[in-house]
Amino acid sequence: MISPRIDRNTKVILQGISGRAGRLHSRLMKAYGTNLVGGVAPAKDVNEINGIPLFPDCASAVKATGATVSVVLVGAYDLLAAMREAVAAGIKMIVTPTEGMPVHDALQAKRLTRDAGVLWIGGSTPGMAVAEVAKLGFLPDVSLKSGPLGLMSKSGTLSYESGYRLALRGVGTSVWVGVGGDPVKGARYSDLVPFYAQDAQTKALLIIGEIGGRDEEDFAEALQAQQFSKPVFALIAGRTAPEGVAMGHAGALTYGSHGGYAAKRAALEAAGVTVYDTLNAMVEGVAARLL
Amino acid sequence: MYLLEHDGKALLARHGIPLPAGCLHTADHKPALPPGPWVVKAQITAGGRGKAGLIKTADSAAEVAARSAEILGKSAKGRTVRAVRIEQQVHGASEAYLSMMLDPAEAGVRIIMAASGGMDIEALPREALKTATAAPDVATLAATAEKLAATIPGATGKALAEAGRKMAAAFIAEEALLIEINPLFVRGDGSWLAGDAKFVTDDSALPRQDAQHALLADVGGAYGETVLKDAHGCDYVVVDPEGEIALLTTGAGLSMMLIDEMRGAGLKPYNFLDIRTGGLRGETRRLVNVLKWMRTGKNVKVLLINIFAGITELGEFSRLLVSALNDVPEFQVPVVARLVGNGMEAARGVLAEAGITLHSDLDEALVEVRKHLQGAQ
Of A63, A176, B153, B240, which residue is most buried, by most CB within 10 angstroms? Predict the structure, then answer.
C-alpha cells in the first residue's frame, strides 16, 4: 500500500532549490520542521542555500544524504526530465508543485513512477503535509493544525481557506494531500483510500474536488470497494461553471456530460459521502461530526 | 482548449483525415461555398447544437445566407455564435463513431469505437461500444485501434481501422486530451469522412504546438480565455455578461467556489479570475489589465476582492491594488475587500487610507456587497 505519511526523520531533497520558489519554499519548509537534507542545483559558487547543502544532480544528493523524498520546483517543461532523474536515483516519493506540465508529459511521468513503485503527488499540487510535523510544498502554516481529519484536494486556495476555517473552528488535519488540478496526475483520491482507511490518526476524510475528469466518481467507487467505514465529506467547486472553458485548472474543463457537477455529486452521495454546497456548511458539518 | 468544430477539423486534416468540403462564414467574411446542398453549423464550443437549433440544412445559396443570418449572433450556453461552418451534405453513407481520450487512471488513451454513430454516445447500447485503453505512443495506439476495428465487419470496420490509425497519429502529435468524430460517415466502398469533430487540446502544451497557437489569433474571440492566459498569465472568464459583481480573486478552486456560493445566494457574479498573486512580482500591470476588462461589464456595480494569502504578503498586495485602482479611474464602482492571511494588519492600514474597509469574514463582505447593489438601484 502506498503511503504519503512523512515525519521529522523523512529525508527530503529539493530539485531546483536555487530558483525563486526553491529559495523561498526551502526556507519555509525547513522552518516548519521538514528534514531538508539537500538541494539539487547547477554548480555555481555557492555550496548551500538556507543552510541546505547543494548537489549537482539527484544521484549524488541521494547517495550523500540517503533521501527518499524529492520536492521538484523546476519549470513545467523540465519536470519530466527531473522526475526521470529522481526515479533513477532511487527516490520513493516525488512532489511536483509546478503548474502547467503538458498533459502528455504527465502521461509519461505517471507510467514512469507507477512502473518504478514511486508515489507521485502532482502536478499543480500545493503539496502535502502532516500538520505540526512536516510539509512538502506550499501549504500555509496558518491552515495546518494537527487533528483527526484526512484531507485531499485538487485546489490549493480552496483547501487553504477550508483548512484555515476548520482550524479556527477547532478541527485539525492528519495527512493533507494536494492531489493537484491537472487532468492526469500522480496519486488520485482513489489511490489513497486504502491509506486513509488504515491510518490511525485519521478519523474522517474530507475531499475538496471540482468539475472536470472523473476523479470524484472513481473515489466514490474506491470507497465502496474498500468498504471505507470512516465518515467522508466533500466540497465540489464549479457547480455553476460554463461548459467548454478550463476554469483556471487544466483539469477543470467540462464538455457535454463529461466532468459535470451533477454526476460527481450523485456518485459521492451514493457512496455515503456528505456533500456540502458552501464552505460554511462544510465547516459546521465536519465540526458537528468530529468535535 | 475546446476547439471550434472548424478548427478541430483543420487539425484533423493536417493528419490526413478526410472531411466534407466546407468553409467558415462570419458576419463580414463569406468565402465561396463548396458544392451543395449544405448544412450550416454554428461554431460554438458546446455540445447539443442540433437540439438548440444551431445546425440547419440549406438547398440554395439564398437559403444558406438566410440560415446563417438566423444562427449568427445567437447565444447558447453563455456563448455567442460568431461563425458558421458551411459544409456539403453527405448522402448515402452510414454513420459510425470513433473517439480517443485521456485515461487518467491508466495513464493511457482510451479508444471508443462503434459501428453506428450520429447520436449522443451515451444513447448507444453498451454492447455496441468497443473500447480499449492503449499506451500513449502512436504505434501502440494505432495497433490497438486496428484490433478493435477488426471486430467490426465490412466497409465500416475497414474505415474505422484507417481512421483509428490516423487519429492515433493526430492524438499524439497534437497532444490532444480528446478527439471525437461523430458521425464518421462510411460509404459502401469503405471511403469515409469526419462529419463532426470534437477536439480538446492541452493549453499547457500550446507553447510547443505552433499550429494550435496560431488558432488563438483566429475567429473573433472564440478562445478569449486561452488568449488571456497566454498573454497575461492569469485566468479570466466572463461567466455572466449581465453580472453585477466583478471578482478580483486568486486560486481557481476558491474562485469557482465563491461564484457557486454567490449564485446560490441569489447574487450575480460577472467573472471568474485566478489573478495568481504569487506572480505579480511587485508590478501593477496584471491588476490594471484585469480592472480594465471588468469595466467592460455593462451591469457591474461593485468590485469584490477575495484573497486568501498563504504565502503572498497582503500589505504589499494592497499597495499594488490601491495603485492599480488609481490607474484605472474610469472603473468607478465601490470596492469591497475580504483578505485573510499573511500581513493582514498591514493590509488593513493601506486599504483604510484608500477608503476601503478590510473584512476578514466573507459573509460580512457579502453583506456590504448587497448594500452597494441596493444603493446602486
Answer: A176
